[in-house]
């Protein structure tokens, strides 16, 4: 395999590893971290430029390998018998029309290159698609967790309101008791001069 297809195979391996990690059932924090990293890379202009150039190069290699892989193959078993001399085994096949082994090997290499570059292009489309699904998963998981915390907060608020109502009733009762006690003490401690003047 040539150097550039070795690099492309390494790129294909990296893309498969990234896609494998993305589809794992990871916790929401790790998914959010992966998505935020992807967003930072996606909004970086240099990364966009490298991705576009790389996809153009891989696309050109795909087209080139596809064209080179379109070789008509003729094997010995595909040849017709020579009509004039059926008994002569040496003349049974037309050996000039048979595809040479080197052409078959070149065709196999080009087919391999078609598969590698094709899958790279496929994963270049697949990874952003999976990331959009991960984005929705993170968003909905955050909404669910916010709703759960809000429900916890709501139940806490309801409990605290009940406690506040009970304390308010206690305070009102205590205030009534204080006012009644003040009235009672005021009545008990009226000045005695009023009673003396009444008796005179």
UniProtKB/TrEMBL annotation:
InterPro entries xref list: BAP29/BAP31, BAP29/BAP31_N
Pfam family, one: Bap31
Any one Gene Ontology cellular component term annotated for this protein: endoplasmic reticulum membrane
Designated name of the protein: Endoplasmic reticulum transmembrane protein
Topology term for the membrane: Multi-pass membrane protein
GO biological process, one term: intracellular protein transport
Function: May play a role in anterograde transport of membrane proteins from the endoplasmic reticulum to the Golgi.
Key words of the record: Endoplasmic reticulum, ER-Golgi transport, Membrane, Protein transport, Transmembrane, Transmembrane helix, Transport
Domain of life from the UniProt record: Eukaryota
Organism: Maudiozyma barnettii
Subcellular compartments: Endoplasmic reticulum membrane; Membrane
Annotated signal peptide: none
Transmembrane feature ranges: 6-26, 47-66, 114-138
Domain BAP29/BAP31 transmembrane: 1-143
Family: Belongs to the BCAP29/BCAP31 family.
């Amino acid at each position: 395999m040539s150097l550039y297809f070795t690099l492309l195979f390494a790129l294909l391996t990296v893309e498969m590893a990234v896609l494998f990690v993305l589809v794992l059932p990871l916790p929401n924090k790790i998914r959010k971290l992966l998505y935020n990293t992807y967003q930072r890379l996606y909004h970086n202009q240099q990364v966009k430029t490298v991705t576009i150039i790389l996809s153009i190069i891989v696309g050109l290699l795909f087209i080139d390998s596809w064209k080179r892989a379109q070789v008509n193959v003729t094997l010995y078993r595909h040849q017709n018998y020579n009509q004039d001399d059926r008994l002569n085994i040496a003349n049974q096949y037309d050996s000039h029309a048979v595809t040479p082994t080197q052409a078959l090997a070149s065709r196999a290499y080009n087919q391999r290159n078609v598969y590698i570059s094709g899958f790279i292009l496929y994963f270049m489309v697949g990874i952003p698609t999976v990331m959009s699904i991960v984005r929705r998963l993170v968003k909905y998981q955050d909404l669910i967790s916010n709703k759960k915390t809000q429900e916890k907060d709501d139940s806490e608020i309801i409990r605290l309101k009940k406690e506040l109502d009970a304390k308010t009733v206690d305070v009102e009762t205590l205030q009534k008791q204080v006012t009644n006690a003040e009235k009672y003490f005021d009545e008990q401690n009226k000045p005695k001069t009023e009673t003396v003047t009444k008796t005179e």
